[in-house]
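Hi R.,

Here are the chain sequences for the assembly we discussed:
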Amino acid sequence: MDNSVGIVQAQHANFDQPLTCLSSGVLPRYDLAYETYGSLNADKSNAILICHALSGNHHVAGTYADDPKNVGWWDNMVGPGKPVDTNRFFVLGLNNLGGCHGTTGPSSIDPRSGQPYGSNFPMMTVEDWVESQARLADRLGIKQFAAVMGGSLGGMQAMQWAITYPERVRHVLAIASAPCLTTENIAFNDVARNAILTDPDFHGGDFYQHGVVPTRGLRLARMLGHITYLSDDAMAGKFGRGLRSGKYKFGYDIEFEVESYLRYQGDKFASYFDANTYLLMTKALDYFDPARHTEHNLAHAFAPIQAGFLVVSFSSDWRFSPDRSREIVKALLHNRCNISYAEIQSRHGHDSFLMQDEQYFAVMRNYLDNIAREVSR
Amino acid sequence: MDNSVGIVQAQHANFDQPLTCLSSGVLPRYDLAYETYGSLNADKSNAILICHALSGNHHVAGTYADDPKNVGWWDNMVGPGKPVDTNRFFVLGLNNLGGCHGTTGPSSIDPRSGQPYGSNFPMMTVEDWVESQARLADRLGIKQFAAVMGGSLGGMQAMQWAITYPERVRHVLAIASAPCLTTENIAFNDVARNAILTDPDFHGGDFYQHGVVPTRGLRLARMLGHITYLSDDAMAGKFGRGLRSGKYKFGYDIEFEVESYLRYQGDKFASYFDANTYLLMTKALDYFDPARHTEHNLAHAFAPIQAGFLVVSFSSDWRFSPDRSREIVKALLHNRCNISYAEIQSRHGHDSFLMQDEQYFAVMRNYLDNIAREVSR
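And here is the predicted structure of the full complex:
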């Protein structure tokens, strides 16, 4: 592929300085797995940080030499000539703390006990991630990002960057995001968590020592997640009431096509994702609420922000609906921020932010081209 | 309560004639638990059949002498002077086959084995229920119902009555119902079922002999159900992002008020409902699709219908949305049926059909008053 970043390699940065989390939990030391694409320019002004969502990681674009089918999760967005143009930007993606793809997480060994952290891994928040990302930026010599961007939970991190480090972020791209979860979002997360927490193989989070994995719970959590990532329309269009064998079989095996899809997605996810990581990520989503410090006034919470913003929402996204993006826009406007907003007509639900939609990509490309023009070569 | 039917008693009808189900499964004999309120008139023309939804039963109105807090599930709708006026109508409610409240179901003893049916209980469909309900009507000497009515899955049974026995139903009241489930509905049901099916205490449906109950799975299924019965707005209004202890506790115990509500509802349900019944009921929902026999043409499927129809939907019901009710209305209009339709503005989601909303009750009362006028005293 001539517009791919090509073969990439994960890197690891080790931090010996303890991280005290918002929960008061302490990580004595930790590793961050990350990837970079493109070249940092002389004054280090062309760096873009890409933050991942619930199940993402540092493998944003390209493939691995020993695993050519493992394409990065935002490969359609990031590469030479793509909206996030690696000919012009130095792109950084990392696996967040608590993750299960090379960054220190619940399945890593706790140096204090010699056992996996498991239930002892501190609860993570978006604020903690921003802190750990800032340390990685320091390590790479990046004083200010040209942009911090992400979809969903990734967009929340980008917003938090602009609040915590106003002088370190020139632009935020918050895609399919929200200023906090709705009650219904939290409720879905709670069902997903309870599926894992009540799986007899979970062992209070310390299943590693028991040689088992709570696959049943993780599978259910992912099945449920998939329903909420798609729109009703998209599911109807993709599967309808189609039957696997053309007729009712009157049993509990797969009958409808949509059941086949969900179970396949659930099984696949449960085979590689860490249950504790899933729990942590959903909790970080629940906790994100910058307005909780400002008597629920989001405009006041956004007061420190200096960055320019691109906010993008998708019409069929019922999990992070356009209404929620408009709340962000309104609070930014109150602070006289530089703000662009696009609501994309799309039937793919929350998953739209990962899809290659023409209008969506044109908006992204246009905004990022303007950023590139601000940056010296 | 002067407008309550007061103290009621469940009755049981035993049927020795085997029932061959749509699935080809056979029930050699069965009991139906039912309740009646009001008096059957001389020509037996004032009977109304009320069909229950997923977790309902025959206890539609009133209370029990030995359990005065156990109020029927539609007590606000049924009673003297209420929309379904028991001073004028003879009201019949029953627990559907496969149920767990006195009617023969998976936890009943299979006379062929002397063990609970468990996994051997035949799969149920709306068509099978209508057949068993017709036999009960025969037993009570009711040749024709003044109305068959119900909400959600109950509305599906009422529609099926009008298709299977056009001459036995004068009116159908289909509330918050649909001509079939959407793909998304089936997907949610599949997650709920998988929670039960993969619970190690389920034992393939034969948990009775193991002295255990798959409470974890049933609890998850009910938690998920509750999210889909409410609207996003209703949940936000009721719980918001309220915290049980006023602050984040950074753990997996209950933090948000909505988590407390869901877990309470899940625990309560799992303590009394039968897991196999839950599975059967969700499958009956998935299977209902009268247009499957008419090349997906609902108007053709409705061709036999002679009954007048009242169709009611609720604006915030995203599980059985007004769009789905309009499909019913359109197909009935095509057949030149007598049809009234009301879309009620309500923020309670699918649960609206159980709530006492002024406009909703006025529509119901008006339609039922007209039916009462057709009926001789």
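The first strand of chain A starts at residue 11 and ends at 15. Chain A has a mean pLDDT of 97.

Let me know if anything looks off.

Best,
T.
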